[in-house]
């Protein structure tokens, strides 16, 4: 029934979590945390705190290369003006299932220098 469907949707929304990932903390090529576990219905917010990073989904078989239909945040050119205003760019990713999502930064050689993370590691 539509009442049961509405109750289920409300229960799922109530149990959904919003998780935070810091991108480029302390001007480093990092995602913090570098791994996390998220359930279907959760949201992962990528908060950009230093200049010119991106969030791209990749395939571990071909590192630092976007997968087909990849997530892509565009480059986020954050700067001190944004920081002082408390105006940090955020890219939100809804989690669809428990499959691993491999993330990297596509700016210059950031991925090759270790700017990678995984949601739901195997």
Automatic annotation (TrEMBL):
Keyword Oxidoreductase carried by entry: no
Q: Mind telling me which SUPFAM superfamilies this protein's record contains? A: Cupredoxins
Cross-referenced Gene3D superfamilies, in alphabetical order? Cupredoxins - blue copper proteins (2.60.40.420)
Q: Where is the signal peptide?
A: 1-24
Entry superkingdom: Eukaryota
| Keyword tags | Signal
What name is this protein filed under? Cupredoxin
What organism is listed for this UniProt entry? Amniculicola lignicola CBS 123094
Looking up InterPro entries in the UniProt record yields: Cupredoxin, Ser-rich/MCO-related
